[in-house]
Amino acid sequence: MLITASLSDIKSTVEYMTSMDFTAIEFRRIVGMCPEILTTKVSDVIPVFTFLLREALVKGSDIKHAIYRRPRLLVCSVDKQLRPTLYFLQSIGIEEVSKHTYLLSCSVEEKFMPRIDYFENIGFSRRDSTIMFRRFPPLFCYSIKNNLEPKYNYFVVEMGRDLKELIEFPQYFSFSLENRIKPRHKRCVEMGVCFPLPTLLKTSEMRFRNRLDVCLNSSTPLKTSPLWSAGGYID
């Protein structure tokens, strides 16, 4: 496509992009990630910028970052791709789509729905599945086979925890299974403690170890104590 493209059209696109304050290095990265940009006419690129600003409500100061993060936005049709995806995301309750513009270039049918269906198939209701994606939109980008499935299986089989925790904290799937989830869970099991998922995974390594040390050096509170937690959690 690049070979047969009009040189004048390519130059016009390059000139337009550089006029948007993209440096030569930034533009090379953008084109490297999405070469099709060079074969896209300026008349097709301008509506994308207009859409992002007026409909997706991306701030002018953030538009450059949005494109730099997801260059493929520039080669998407506003009518056939961007706008329908925007409406879908809004329909499930994601109000600030401007913070997740990288999702606009994704296919609702091929990417979003299979992931929602996956969570329904493993026991979540459609409502709960939707809540999870609303709370953590990046979940749409995770591979079912390489991310969601192995982490879910470990959560259920090895950790034996309640699915409600995933609804409350879908960010669980953003943490490394081998480097964060497994080692921290195993250390808690060895010490006989159970932290809520955010405490287990979000805290720094040093703070996590400090909490374990506190548990190791503290006696179990009596059931009559206000520190007692019937669910066994230590926050």
UniProtKB/TrEMBL annotation:
Calcium in keyword set: no
SMART domains documented for this protein:
Mterf (SM00733)
Q: Which InterPro entries match?
A: MTERF, MTERF_sf
| A biological-process GO annotation | DNA-templated transcription termination
Q: What is this protein called?
A: Uncharacterized protein
**Keywords carried by this UniProt record:** Transcription, Transcription regulation, Transcription termination, Transit peptide
- What is a GO molecular function of this protein? nucleic acid binding
Q: Which family does it belong to?
A: Belongs to the mTERF family.
